[in-house]
Amino acid sequence: MERIGRLEVFLICILVQGNTAIDPCTNYSKVYRSDSRGTNCFVEIKSPAVCDRLLKPGWYKAEANGISLEMASSCPPMYSCGTESQLWMDGRSPSVSDGVVNRKVCIRDTGPNDCCNKSKQIQIKNCGSFYVYNISYTDECNQAYCFGNKKCPNRNSPTVQKTSTKQITGFTNTPPPIDPCKSYMNINRAGLRGTMCKIYDVETTVCDRLLRPGWYKVEENGMSLDMPTYCVDSYSCGTAAPIWLNGSLSLQSYETADRTACVKGVGTSNCCSNSISIRIKNCVNYNVYYLPYTDFCDAAYCFGRHECKIEQTTKKETIQTSDGRISNQTVAILGSLVIIILILLIFLGIVTYRYFIRGTTRSSKVKSIKGPVVSIHSIEYIKT
């Protein structure tokens, strides 16, 4: 009995010590750049976006200026939380009695209705006066978790905070810089961005309001295109407010330079109603452009001098376009098929009706003939 008692005491001590060691309310790290993760903090090209690609998995507390922050529980605006793609919690925050609970985190995309195309699981615990979150690194940059609803702070460079348990924020070594000549995106609707493509020749205008900020290479039919370096015509490049490069494209091999792009206003003399800061890098055989999204629709960047071309990105040969709407060409084809089917049904109905009428007429004639004949024979038989 004495041995059993000692064993029970030993096991209880181990359990108590284990529960104390793993309590996330006293053993956590602080979220990096918590004050830049508010739903009212919008990412800008001049400041680095918040990215959790290198976040070390573990328990975290979000805090800004001594105030604890909760993870956003509703779909945040695009390009908010100091990043390009936001992670927010789809569910309520737990109570203290709930302990550690699992929650679904949605990954917001750059489309207006793309609030939860992808998701992942996290853990949350209510520590009374604050919450701690068991989160891990994101799949790509720039993605980050949203906390609070604050605006962006005024500062030149982010600072790394330390935790109360003297742990670092949990980031691994800084990755090597990405070469935009090898890592870039292809801009959409390149066939409609030529200076000879007028807005009245396109079905839907080109708009870069939802363009994802980043490095872009523009090509059409395998040929790379550059931004025009002259004042373009109004309502060209398939949009209402075309954007052209107010600077030179003369760069050394692999040289990167800052440039200014101008938004063409209405009228021949209004060549630069607004300016946008962009970057260009010479990749020897082509140029890549770092482009931010525009302030309004319809404004779009110009590339090349071609006329309007049917773009492959519209997918007019399919039933639905890339944005989910049925194309006009598809509607016309479906309408023609419906008309042809209706004509065939009407034709078959007419043929069936005529066949039925003819059959009814023949049967009535036979009956009218048989009646008199029978009566005549019967009369003659009586006479004889």
Question: What's this, in brief?
Answer:
By secondary structure, the protein is α+β, with helices and mostly antiparallel strands. It has helices at residues 2-21, 328-383, and strands spanning 29-30, 58-61, 63-64, 67-68, 85-90, 100-107, 118-126, 131-135, 143-145, 185-186, 214-217, 219-220, 223-224, 241-245, 256-263, 274-282, 287-291, 299-301. Among the domains are: 26-145, no CATH class; 185-325, no CATH class.
* Unreliable parts: 15-20, 156-174, 312-327, 372-384
- The computed structural class is alpha+beta
Characterize the overall form.
flat
Q: Number of helix segments?
A: 2
Query: Secondary-structure element order, as H and E?
Result: HEEEEEEEEEEEEEEEEEEH
Q: Compute the CA-based radius of gyration.
A: 36 Å
Number of strands: 18
Mean pLDDT, rounded to whole units?
80
Q: Beta-strand percentage?
A: 15-25%
Tell me the helix content.
10-25%
How far the N terminus sits from the C terminus, by CA atoms, comes to: 135 Å
* Cross-sheet strand order for the largest sheet: 1-2-8-7-6-5-9
What does the main sheet amount to?
7 strands, mixed
